C-alpha cells in the first residue's frame, strides 16, 4: 500500500522546526509520504520542500493550494524550487478553494472556477516542463520574458488537483497528473471519480491518472470520542456544496460520518476499500483527533502496512 499522512505543525514554537520533526517521525515509522494543507499561515509549498530537504526518505506534497488569489508564474517558481530541494520528491496539489474563503479573504469573486482551473493548468504545465509559457486566456495571462526554469527541478513537478465535480474532473484528467479527493469514500471513488478521471485522461492521450485519496481517520480504542471530535474538525465541509454531494453519495449527512475510527483491523479494512475502489495512494489526515498517543499509534500502524510490501510508483 502507498500510504502517507497529513499534518499541521501547530501554532506554538517554530512551525518549520515542528514540521521537520513530524516529517522525521513519519519517515521513521515507515510512512512514505507527507502532505501539507494550505490556509493563511505557513506556505505549504515552501514547507514541503524544507521537510523533504531534511528528511530524504519522505515524498512530500501539498493538499492543496487554492488557485484563486494565485498566479501560475509564482506557483511554478515555488513548486520548482521545492522540487529541487526535494531532489524529485515533491508533488504539487492544487484546489479550487471555496467561495467563502476566496471572497472573504481575497475580495475576489468566486466566478467560473472550472474555467479558471483550465486556464491555470494550461499555463502552469509548460512552465513546469520547459520553464516557458505564452498563454493569453480570458481570465489570466502568463508569459515568460525570462526563463522560469529552476535548475535541479527534475523530473517535472507532478500536478494533482483536489477535484470531485464532473467538470473539474474532466479538466483534471485532461491537464493534470491526477486528483486528491477528500471525503470522497470508496463508493464515490469507484463509481464516479476514477471512471470520469480515467476517461478524460484517455481522451487527452495522457497516462493513467494518480488517485490520491485523503481519508479522515485514527486508530483508537475510543471511536465515539473520535467521531465527536470529527464533528468540529469537519464542520466547514458540511456547508460546501461539492462536499455535501459526495457525503450524501456515501449515504451520510455530515462529513464527520466518514471518519475511520477504530482498531488496527478496522483501519486496515477501510484503507483496503479505498484501494479496491481505484485509489493509487491513500493518506490519513486528522490522526490526532483523540490525542497524540493515538496519532503515534496510527502512524506506526500505517508504517507497518506501508512497509509490508514494496512501494508502487507514485
Structural class: alpha/beta
CATH class category label of the largest domain: Alpha Beta
Please bin the fraction of helical residues: 40-55%
At the fold tier of CATH, the topology name of the largest domain is: TIM Barrel
Total beta strand runs: 12
Largest sheet: 8 strands, parallel, barrel
Low-confidence stretches: none
Strand order of the largest sheet: 1-2-3-5-8-9-10-12
Portion of residues in beta strands equals 15-25%
CATH superfamily of the largest domain: Luciferase-like domain
N- to C-terminal separation? 11 Å
Name given to the CATH architecture of the largest domain: Alpha-Beta Barrel
- Overall pLDDT: 95
Number of helices: 11
Order of helices and strands: EHEHEEHEHHEEEHEHEHHEHEH
- Write down the domain tally: 2
Main attributes?
alpha/beta, eight-stranded parallel β-barrel, TIM Barrel, Luciferase-like_sf, oxidoreductase, 11 helices, 46% helix, two-stranded antiparallel sheet, F420-G6PD/mer, globular
Describe this structure in words.
The protein has two domains: 161 residues, Alpha-Beta Barrel (TIM Barrel); 147 residues, Luciferase-like domain (TIM Barrel). 46% of the residues lie in helices and 16% in strands. It is built from eleven helices and twelve strands. The strands form two sheets. It has an eight-stranded parallel β-barrel with strand order 1-2-3-5-8-9-10-12, surrounded by seven helices. Helix 1 packs across helix 2 and helix 2 runs parallel beside helix 3. The N and C termini lie close together (11 Å).
